[in-house]
Design goal:
CATH class: Mainly Beta
Binding site for substrate: 98, 116
Order of helices and strands: EEEEEEEEEEEEEEEEEHEEEEEEHE
Shape: globular
Radius of gyration: 17 Å
Largest sheet: 4 strands, antiparallel
InterPro entries: 6-blade_b-propeller_TolB-like, SGL, SMP-30, SMP-30/CGR1_Lactonase
Oligomer: single chain
GO molecular function, one term: hydrolase activity
Number of strands: 24
Helix content: under 10%
Strand order of the largest sheet: 1-24-23-22
Active site: 209
Protein name: Gluconolactonase
Distance between the termini: 20 Å
Amino acid sequence: MTATTVLEGFSFLEAPRWRQSRIWFADFYQYQVFSAREDGSDLRVEATVPQQPSGLGWLPDGRLLIVSMRDRRILRREPDGELVTHAELNGHATGHLNDMVVDGRGRAYVGNFGFDLMGAAPLETAALHRVDPDGTVTEVATDLWFPNGSVLTNDGALLVGETFGNRVTAFDVTGDGALVNRRIWAEFGPVPTERAVGKALPQLEIAPDGCCLDAEGALWIADGAHARLVRVTEGGKITDEVRPGTPVFACALGGSDGKTLFACAAPDFDEHARSAAREARLLAIRVPVPGA
């Protein structure tokens, strides 16, 4: 499996999503949400988010939700294109908001950094929050080591990648949106003993960043620490590995047949370096199993 470049010239890409025959993604430091066709043509600016966009999702009626990282809000794009505040998490999250997954009822599960990553603060755990369609915010899980890429499975579970936890954690989602039966879905190594980010990173076997689910229930994970994409089954077995020659930080399955693995690539995740350059790319890799 080899990677080809679909689009380039961005700062730092995150949260790829396949929807309406287009690949959608956020660019942190150009402060915009984009979409394009499978081959990268017809690039569109879908929204401008001055406080840094990240996770994307859609309400059942088709309105777009966007994580606004720095002011810890979730924005909603109305049918006329106006962005309004859907939910305010300033009094809840302990770091920049990050990735998000939205279920079929319009409930959004959103993680946050938990500490000042770019300011070189020591690692701290973070909570996961649920935002209901009316904007109500509820804490649904605690003590997660950087809750990052998340997916909802067909059997009613939520999988959350803990970037600094060396693992993917699973929860069952109840009818009212609560998370129960917390368990380790895949463990790649122990939680790092170091709390300085630079010292913790070498202790990570896999640093789960953005992820996506395929039709066989396996998880494609962008390993943010080792410049690779890995396909993992429950229990932690790696069945496939793609090394595109660059660090990758998020992925999504899509394309006309669901077998294109889109990946967000950049030289690193350093805010100062990425905001000053336009070296990020959107990659595509053909894989055998389509998206879920």
